[in-house]
UniProtKB/TrEMBL annotation:
Membership in a protein family: Belongs to the D-isomer specific 2-hydroxyacid dehydrogenase family.
Enzyme Commission code(s) on record: 1.1.1.399, 1.1.1.95
NCBIfam families, alphabetized: PRK11790.1
Catalytic activities: (R)-2-hydroxyglutarate + NAD(+) = 2-oxoglutarate + NADH + H(+); (2R)-3-phosphoglycerate + NAD(+) = 3-phosphooxypyruvate + NADH + H(+)
Domain of life: Bacteria
Classification via PROSITE patterns: ACT (PS51671), D_2_HYDROXYACID_DH_1 (PS00065), D_2_HYDROXYACID_DH_2 (PS00670), D_2_HYDROXYACID_DH_3 (PS00671)
Name the record gives this protein: D-3-phosphoglycerate dehydrogenase
Transmembrane residue ranges: none
Entry keyword annotation includes Hydrolase: no
Pathway listed: Amino-acid biosynthesis; L-serine biosynthesis; L-serine from 3-phospho-D-glycerate: step 1/3
Residue ranges of every copy of the ACT domain listed in the record: 341-410
Length: 410
């Protein structure tokens, strides 16, 4: 049976959820992809499955959950794009085993988060959040008690990655003294100091700001015991992930006056849309800034993210590059003009590469270039061949035991 050499661009279906920036649509269209299904909202359950069941590319933000069960229903899926930083909403291991690379925008909203956190630090240190609430209620409580400059105050950053280090730089530029705790050894920027004890960081800092990812090591890393280790009257900020903080313990620390105030942008349970009410034990406090997970929600960040992730989609679809995929062997590829490019994703087990190369040997087809990267579970090999028609070759590649996905590029 003859199978088509490659999928026509008009047949490649993109499903973009959660109102990703229009830039993403423009970039896909200018690359020749017009089969784009755009949703403003997040989807879940049957609606999600229905929307993505025949999609080749799916773009989401932080609210759409792509579990292994959901991914198994999306039989044609080639790649996932998280139009954000976090990828914890996707079962990235399951995606990998299905041959689906996951892309994200690892630093396009970094500055936006750091700016919001810095603003919150200043407002909370000045007691301006409480003052604002009081004045709204008609209370003119003009007082300097409990209001401080941030200059010379100690900022403790937990997680010194893109956001933590960006915050470090801008906080230092307004006179804060920065220390940080990270499980990795990190190059301190400016005059920041890395500390090896989280307990010491908590005890010494006037302000604590969390910038770690959601994973097993960070689940409830800030609990009642950790909050008790904080300096009395400290300000606490969480713009990382809601699961990192025991929210009831945080409410207790605010109620007892242990903490001066808090800024919280992320929650263990977040409403799926604005139709659902937000409920939290933090709602009762005047000295807490609550924001609806908007750390990365600026025009600038969303535009940059739209460009970055859509460009990664185009690169993977047109060229096969998996550079910067978060769950996949990374292969960076040159243009393949003049050659046909075959992509083969397979279980990383003995004999697969041998069978692949055997096919070309038997066909007497010259391999112009071959690129292979593997990890413990899968291998991704890209083969440029000097041949006019590779339909039969593709069929043979697909028949190899251990093949997860194979395709040929335009
Ligand atoms: N509020 C928002 O809208 C928003 C926007 C962007 C990112 N985020 C969240 O912020 C997180 C951090 O973003 P980033 O770009 O700085 O990520 P990053 O990967 O660049 O940095 C994370 C840092 O945390 C460190 N880390 C990991 N586990 C740790 C642990 N147990 N203890 C101490 N340090 C640990 C890592 O070594 C790394 O240096 C993201 O994972 C995302 O969940 C939230
Ligand atoms: O991971 C992220 O980048 C942030 O949590 C922002 O997610 P959002 O794009 O859904 O606002």
């Amino acid at each position: 049976m003859k199978i088509t050499n490659s999928l026509d661009k008009s047949k490649i279906k993109f499903v973009l959820l959660e109102g990703v920036h229009q830039n993403a649509v423009d970039i896909l269209k200018s690359a020749g992809y017009n089969n784009i299904h755009y949703y403003k909202e997040a989807l879940d359950g049957e609606d999600l499955i229905e929307a993505i069941k025949d999609a080749h590319f799916v773009g989401i933000r932080s609210r759409t959950h792509l579990s292994a069960e959901v991914l198994l229903q999306a039989k044609k899926l080639i790649a996932i794009g998280c139009f954000c930083i976090g990828t914890n909403q996707v079962d990235t291991e399951a995606a990998k085993c299905l041959g689906i690379p996951v892309f994200n925008a690892p630093f396009s909203n970094t500055r936006s988060v750091a700016e919001l956190v810095l603003a919150e630090i200043i407002l909370l240190m000045r007691k301006a959040v409480q003052a604002n609430m009081e004045v709204h209620r008609g209370l003119w409580n003009k007082s300097a008690v409990g209001a401080n400059e941030v200059r010379n105050k100690k900022l403790g950053i937990i997680g010194y990655g893109h956001i933590g280090s960006q915050l470090s730089i801008i906080a230092e530029s307004i006179g804060m003294q920065v220390s940080f705790y990270d499980i990795e050894n990190k190059l301190p920027l400016g005059n920041a100091k890395q500390v090896t004890s989280l307990e010491n960081l908590l005890a010494e800092s006037d302000v604590i700001s969390l910038h770690v990812p959601e994973n097993a090591s960070t689940k409830n890393m800030i609990n009642a015991q950790r909050l008790a280790q904080c300096k009395d009257g400290a300000v606490f900020i969480n713009a990382a992930r809601g699961t990192v903080v025991d929210i009831q313990a945080l409410a207790d620390a605010l109620k007892s006056g242990k903490l001066r105030g808090a800024g919280v942008d992320v929650f263990p349970v977040e409403p799926a849309s604005k139709d659902e009410p937000f409920v939290s034990p933090l709602c009762e406090f005047d000295n807490v800034i609550l924001t609806p997970h908007i750390g990365g929600s600026t025009s600038e960040a969303q535009e940059n993210i739209g460009t970055e992730v859509a460009s990664k989609f185009v690169k993977y679809s047109d060229n096969g590059s998996t550079l910067s995929a978060v769950n996949f062997p990374e292969v960076s590829l040159p243009e393949h003009s003049g050659a046909k490019r075959l992509l083969h994703i397979h279980a990383n087990k003995p004999g697969v590469m041998n069978q692949i190369n055997q096919i070309f040997m038997n066909e007497n087809t010259n391999i112009a270039a071959q690129y292979l990267q593997t990890d413990a579970q899968i291998g991704y090999v890209v083969i440029d061949v000097e041949a006019d028609d590779v339909a039969d070759t593709l069929a043979k590649l697909k028949a190899i035991d251990g093949t997860i996905k194979a395709r040929v590029l335009h």
